[in-house]
From TrEMBL:
Protein name: 16S rRNA (Cytosine967-C5)-methyltransferase
Residues that hold S-adenosyl-L-methionine according to the record: D254, D285, D301
Family label: Belongs to the class I-like SAM-binding methyltransferase superfamily. RsmB/NOP family.
Record PANTHER family: NOP2 YEAST -RELATED NOL1/NOP2/FMU SUN DOMAIN-CONTAINING, RIBOSOMAL RNA SMALL SUBUNIT METHYLTRANSFERASE B-RELATED
Uppermost EC category: transferase
SUPFAM superfamilies: S-adenosyl-L-methionine-dependent methyltransferases (SSF53335)
Enzyme Commission number(s) from the entry: 2.1.1.176
Pfam families: Methyltr_RsmB-F, RsmF-B_ferredox
GO terms, molecular function: RNA binding; RNA methyltransferase activity
GO biological process, one term: RNA methylation
InterPro entries, per the entry: MeTrfase_RsmB-F_NOP2_cat, MeTrfase_RsmB-F_NOP2_dom, RCMT, RsmB-like_ferredoxin, RsmB/NOL1/NOP2-like_CS, SAM-dependent_MTases_sf
Boundaries of every SAM-dependent MTase RsmB/NOP-type domain copy: 140-417
Length: 417
């Protein structure tokens, strides 16, 4: 991509702002674009790609250019990550930067420490090594440095996967069925989906295949009482509603009014009428009391570190600490405890996260089961097989980008005796 001196300067400005602020990178980048409305789509794409490359490869760049200014980090990134030659950048380099950039270009990158190759903070790298061993931890970490494909879920109420695939193909796009989810379509090209008729008519929703598989694990049946305890903007709720063929009652709880309000337009597109969004103050909200043991299925898609989604949100690895993880596990335990109260005898409770860390996953489930002999664990692979999904990761569902091509997800299925 050809870049002008003006675009280079704007990129440095955007990245400086990004580094100075706090909060999710995608929100801050959107705010920057809102404040710079004149930027065209080509320039926006370049700025976003550079910002994300820098977030993905920050350890390597810090090794190449320790304590560099945002301007120099961008230069190093363009040369060593994006593969531009220093000569291409010379027209807008300052005098002192010409030689410096040549040195950056020539600096060897062999035998880097494994945490640097993994592009993870040391504490996170050490945890992954303890869980998976060095070789697999590195494979996982490398897969998390890639960009994620655009996965869609076909809404069974409004369309069929074969027809959606055929339409995309006719439009010249590379659309393939996702390997595991029966409703998934993977698009190679990144398109402006919100302008596509299939999206506006509610035939497709954006949803990683991993999320689709979590809904398949809940496997609600027609006419059942189902709760999505941490529904957020309703990605999984909508998938559950479609599996239920718009029958029964589906509650979408969340503590965030903003997230639940983002569910509304998606709900309108989906054609579902069995879904009831309910704002709760916290997991001990009085509203939940009268619903005790009323549900056949309860999904807890718990607030988590999100470290399984680093392909999409590379900033998450720099924005969290071990202390945050410890706090999260307490919250996760409390939410699981409260959500379990809603489950009927014989009913199913699915605890899920998009984290890769045992503390947030197996650890939370083990602590819960130790306190609740009235629940027992079911085998996730068997439940998926009942939905004709051949995917065996053992008792737990454990999805990993290098193995399954999805974001990293974890789920445990628990049944009330
Ligand atoms: C991983 S996100 C859910 C994503 C959503 N299920 C989806 O598929 O799009 C976790 C959600 O938990 C919500 N949350 C946080 N604390 C909660 C609590 N105490 N009770 C219920 N929901 C909570 C957050 O607001 C957030 O929306």
């Amino acid at each position: 991509m050809a870049i002008s001196p003006a675009l280079f300067d704007t990129t440095v400005e955007a990245i400086t702002e990004l580094q100075e602020g706090s909060g999710p990178a995608d929100a801050r980048l959107s705010a920057y674009f809102r404040n710079h409305r004149k930027l065209g789509s080509h320039d926006r794409a370049f700025i976003a790609e550079t910002a994300y490359a820098l977030l993905r490869r920050r350890r390597f760049l810090d090794y190449l250019a320790p304590e560099a200014s945002p301007r120099r980090l961008v230069l190093a990134c363009l040369v060593r990550v994006n593969g531009l030659s220093p000569r291409e950048l010379e027209p807008f380099l300052r005098k002192t930067e010409v030689e410096w950039l040549r040195e950056i270009k020539a600096k060897p990158a062999d035998n880097l420490p494994l945490a640097v190759q993994a592009e993870l903070p040391d504490w996170l790298w050490e945890r992954l090594v303890a869980q998976y061993g060095e070789e697999e931890a590195l494979a996982i970490a490398r897969s998390l440095q890639q960009t994620a494909p655009l996965d869609l879920r076909v809404n069974r109420l409004k369309g069929q996967r074969e027809a959606v695939l055929a339409l995309f193909t006719k439009e010249g796009l590379t659309a393939t069925p996702t390997p595991y989810s029966p409703d998934g379509v993977r698009l190679k090209e990144k398109i402006a989906l919100n302008q596509h008729v299939l999206f506006n008519k509610g035939v497709v929703e954006v949803q990683d295949e991993g999320s689709q598989l979590l809904a398949a694990l809940v496997a609600p049946r027609r006419g059942e009482m189902v709760a999505d305890f941490c529904a957020g903007a309703g990605g999984k709720t909508l998938a559950l509603g479609a599996i239920m063929a718009n029958t029964g009652r589906l509650y979408a709880f969340d503590v965030s009014e903003r997230r639940l309000s983002n569910l509304r337009p998606r709900l309108a597109r989906s054609g579902l009428s069995n879904l009831h969004p309910q704002l709760i103050a916290n997991e001990r909200d009085q509203k939940l009391k009268r619903l005790a043991q009323k549900f056949d299925r309860v999904l807890v898609d718990a607030p988590c570190s999100g470290l399984g989604t680093l392909r999409r949100n590379p900033d998450l690895k720099w924005r969290q600490s071990e202390m945050d993880i410890a706090e999260l596990t307490v919250k996760q335990g409390n939410i699981l405890e409260a959500a379990a109260k809603l489950v009927k005898p014989g009913g199913r409770l699915v605890y899920a996260t998009c984290s890769l860390l045992e503390a947030e996953n197996e650890g939370v489930v083990a602590a819960f089961l130790a306190q609740h002999p009235e629940f027992e664990q079911a085998n996730a692979a068997e439940i998926l097989a009942q939905q004709k999904i051949e995917l065996d990761t053992g008792d737990f569902l454990k999805l990993l980008p290098h193995k399954h091509g999805t974001d990293g997800f974890f789920a445990a299925v628990l049944t009330r005796r």
